[in-house]
Amino acid sequence: MKPEPEPEATLSNGMRAVLEPDRWRPGFVNLVVDGTPQSQVNPDDPRELGFEYIQRIAHVIDLLREPGEPLTAVHLGAGALTLPRYVLATRPGSRQQVLELEPALVDLVREHLPLPSDSGIRVRYGDARAGLGKLPRALTGTVDLVVVDIFSGSQIPAHVTSVEFYREVAALLAPGGVIAVNLADGPGLAFARGQAATLGAAVAEVAALAETQILKGRRFGNIVLVGSNAPLPLEWLPRLLAAGPHPSKAVAGRELRDFIAGAPVVTDAAAKPSPPPARTFLAVDRD
Fold it and tell me: How confident is the model at residue 287 (pLDDT cuts 50, 70, 90)?
């Protein structure tokens, strides 16, 4: 008897999106786009997270406001709605907006990994940067969390890497609100250093979180940048490191300036996509 085919959809750019059961973690489902794992979710317990970078962002979310307090969140990039599901599970009553380019991807996820009818998650379609200007004006200055996780296949498009883009995102933030950006980079970290400099030109303070060897530029992987218009509480860093996944490294302040090492701020005129992953890189660390 043949196994049933895995759910799939063809996206507007011709890429193929597939939902696959995870081989090593029963109950988890992976969203794979054009061969690159994009999301991982446990639909039975959205609080249980797989990819390391998603866990790091979730630890930041846990430190926002009071534990369990509802948040106002904007997610740029939908994936399998992993983090919106996490916020819903850990902070009931949150208001969440998701901007996603591909309706076919969201339809695939909603059909096979449905959200509760009262989730409070509103999905809007279109380019993430263009969509910022179409969000309700009342959101400006009121958003506790913006997650930037925008990939086309395995690369981040150039137009969402510039200081002009980050300033548009930062305008959404409430006092104490946070931007969390998922990046992917490899040895040398030229792209990540430039993004840290660029986000730092749009907000008051930035920190970078990653697995130790990635942040040292020794292998390709995911780096999370956390930025805010208000100073980030320094006591966050030890708590984020202790929360893992391990081994973890976090840099802020003088150490972040050393990490940036004079990398220029990226403007719209000079923006380029992120580098493609090395052939040996299995993107199990992506959403």
Answer: very low
- Are 68 and 91 spatial neighbours (Cβ–Cβ below 8 Å)? yes
Please state, in angstroms and rounded to a whole number, the distance separating the CA atoms of residues 277 and 220: 7
Q: Which CATH superfamily is domain 46-260 in?
A: Vaccinia Virus protein VP39 (3.40.50.150)
Alpha-carbon distance of 117 to 205, in angstroms, equals: 37
The predicted model scores a pTM of 0.93
Closest alpha carbon to 16 in 153, 110, 114, 124: 153
Helix (H, G, I), strand (E, B) or coil at 147: strand
Q: Tokens 């004079």 appear where?
A: 262
What single DSSP character describes residue 77?
-
The residue-averaged pLDDT of 94-123 equals: 95
CB neighbour class for 286 (10 Å; exposed up to 12, middle 13-18, buried from 19): buried
Q: What φ, ψ does residue 174 adopt, rounded to 5°?
A: -75, 165
Contacts of 250 (CB under 8 A, 6+ apart): 207, 208, 209, 237, 240, 241
Q: Strand 72-76 relative to strand 16-21: parallel, antiparallel, unpaired?
A: unpaired
Per-residue pLDDT tens digits for 39-79? 999 999 999 998 999 999 999 999 999 999 999 999 999 99
Which positions ≥6 away from 227 have C-beta within 8 Å? 166, 170, 178, 179, 181, 199, 200, 202, 203, 205, 206, 207
Q: What is the spatial distance between Cα 109 and Cα 104, in angstroms, rounded to a whole number? A: 9
Burial of 255-264, coded b for 16+ CB within 10 Å and e otherwise, reads ebeebbeebe
Per the prediction, the chain carries an average pLDDT of 91
The sign of the torsion formed by the CA atoms of 13, 16, 21, 23 equals negative
Output the pLDDT for position 233. Answer: 66
